[in-house]
Automatic annotation (TrEMBL):
KW Lyase (keyword) present: no
InterPro entries xrefs: Aldolase_TIM, Dihydroorotate_DH_cat
Residues forming coiled coils: none
Pfam families linked to this entry: DHO_dh
Protein name: dihydrouracil dehydrogenase (NAD(+))
Residues in the signal sequence: none
Length: 365
C-alpha cells in the first residue's frame, strides 16, 4: 500500500504537508497557480494589508552563499559555493486587497483540493485597527481562503503597532484574536516573531485566545554584512540600510529550537514549522519536534528555472517523504510527529562524566 501523504492540520486536509510560506513565491495569482500545478499542498499568500506599500529603491532580497575555500558569507558570485541564507527587507504585498480578492477566488476555484491560507496584517491599539483586521479577514474568507495566518512578525516595519514590533505582546495578541472572534469561521494561524524571550507565553496567549496554530519562524531581524574594502553593505540604498530578515539554512537550528519550545509547552496544539527547509531532512526535524505542517520560502526562491516556486523542490519533498514512510512502515507523518519532544531536557538532566560538575544543576545550592 502506498503511504499516505495526506495530512490533517487545523481541521483542514492537505494533499501533502508542504506549503509555500508567505513571501515572493506566493505574491501573485500566476505564481500560486504554478505552485499548485507543481504539487504544493497549500500556500500562505504574501501578506495582504490595507496601508499603501512602497518598497526600497533597490534589491529587496539577496541570497548569501559560503564556500569551503573561502568560508565567508556573501551574495557575491563565487565558484563552488553553497547557500547560507536569504536576507530581505521586502514589505508586505504591494497588491491592494481589491485586486487580491478575484485572484483568490480564481485560485480556489481552479484548485479546490489545495489549501489557500490568506496572510493578513493590520495594526493594533485602537478599534479602527481591529476593524481593519476584521475587514481583511472577512474579505479573504469570502473570496475562498480556507484559513488565515495573522502576520504579527514582519521584522521590518516602522510602525510600532505592527509586525515584529508587537514583540509578542500578549495583550495585543489577545485583542486581535478577540476582534476576529465571530467575524470568520475558519482556522486562524498566528505567525509570531522568533526574536523575543517571551515566545512561549505569546504562543500560549494565542492558543488561549483561539488560534488554531502558531506559524514559526518568520525571518530573524538582522543586518546585512559590510565589505571591509569598500565599506558597502551587501545591500543598501544610498549607503543606508535598516533591519531586515534572515531566512534559509542559517536559521534552521534556531527555528527548530523555538518550534520545540512551543511544542513541548503545548503538545496538544498545532504548529506549522518554518525556517531553513531545503529538503526532507530539515522537514523531518520539524515534524520530529512536533510540527504538523511545513512551510518553505528561501529554498523555493533559490531554485533556478522554477520561477521562484520550487518545482523540483516540491517533487523531491513529496517523493522523499513517501519513500521514508514506506521504508519505516509508517502510514503518515503522525506516527513520528513529536518523537524528539521527550529527548529535549534540562541541561542538568544530561549525564555527566563524574559527579563533580555542579554548574547550572537544578538542585545545586
Ligand atoms: C523576500 C521575503 C519576503 C517575505 N515576506 C513575508 C510576508 O509578506 N509575510 C510573512 O509572514 N513572511 C514573509 N517572509 C518570511 C517567510 O514566509 C518565512 O517565514 C521565512 O523566510 C523563513 O523561511 P525560509 O527559511 O524557508 O526562508 C518573507 C521572506 C522573504 C525571504
Amino acid at each position: 500500500m502506498k503511504p499516505e501523504l495526506t495530512t490533517q492540520f487545523t481541521g483542514l486536509e492537505f494533499v501533502n504537508p508542504f506549503v509555500l510560506a508567505s513571501a515572493p513565491p506566493t505574491e501573485s495569482k500566476r505564481k500560486i497557480l504554478k505552485a499548485f500545478e507543481a504539487g504544493w499542498g497549500g500556500v500562505v499568500t504574501k501578506t495582504i494589508g490595507l496601508h499603501p506599500v512602497e518598497n526600497v529603491a533597490g534589491p529587496k532580497t539577496i541570497f548569501q552563499r559560503t564556500s569551503e575555500q573561502k568560508p565567508y558569507v556573501s551574495r557575491n558570485k563565487r565558484p563552488d559555493t553553497v547557500s547560507h541564507s536569504s536576507w530581505n527587507w521586502e514589505l508586505i504585498s504591494d497588491q491592494p486587497l481589491e485586486q487580491w480578492l478575484p485572484d483568490l477566488e480564481e485560485i480556489k476555484t481552479t484548485y479546490p483540493d489545495r489549501m489557500l491560507i490568506g496572510s493578513i496584517m493590520a495594526g493594533a491599539g485602537n478599534e479602527e485597527e481591529m476593524e481593519n483586521w476584521r475587514k481583511l479577514a472577512r474579505a479573504c474568507v469570502d473570496a475562498g481562503c480556507d484559513a488565515l495566518e495573522l502576520n504579527m512578525s514582519c521584522p521590518h516595519m516602522d510602525r510600532k503597532d505592527m509586525g515584529a514590533h508587537i514583540a509578542n505582546d500578549e495583550d495585543i495578541i489577545r485583542s486581535i484574536l478577540g476582534a476576529l472572534k465571530g467575524a470568520v469561521d475558519v482556522p486562524i494561524w498566528v505567525k509570531l516573531t522568533p526574536s523575543t524571550s517571551t515566545l512561549v507565553d505569546a504562543a500560549g496567549a494565542a492558543y488561549d485566545a483561539g488560534a488554531a496554530s502558531i506559524s514559526l519562524c518568520n525571518t530573524f531581524p538582522s543586518l546585512p554584512l559590510m565589505d571591509p574594502e569598500t565599506f558597502k553593505f551587501e545591500v543598501e540604498v544610498d549607503g543606508l540600510v535598516t533591519s531586515g530578515g534572515l531566512g534559509g539554512l542559517a536559521i534552521l537550528h534556531q527555528a527548530l529550537q523555538r518550534v520545540s519550545d512551543i511544542s513541548r509547552a503545548y503538545p496538544d496544539k498545532a504548529i506549522s514549522g518554518i525556517g531553513g527547509i531545503k529538503g526532507f531532512r530539515e522537514a523531518f526535524n520539524f515534524i520530529a519536534h512536533g510540527a504538523g505542517n511545513l512551510q518553505v520560502c528561501t529554498a523555493a526562491m533559490e531554485e533556478k528555472g522554477s520561477g521562484g516556486i520550487g518545482v523540483n523542490l516540491i517533487n523531491e519533498l513529496t517523493t522523499d517523504l513517501a519513500d521514508y514512510l514506506e521504508r519505516k512502515g509508517y502510514s503518515s507523518i503522525e506516527e513520528f510527529r513529536g518523537i524528539a519532544r521527550e529527548r529535549i531536557v534540562e541541561h542538568s538532566q544530561v549525564r555527566r562524566k563524574s559527579d563533580a560538575y555542579n554548574g547550572g544543576y537544578a538542585k545545586s545550592a
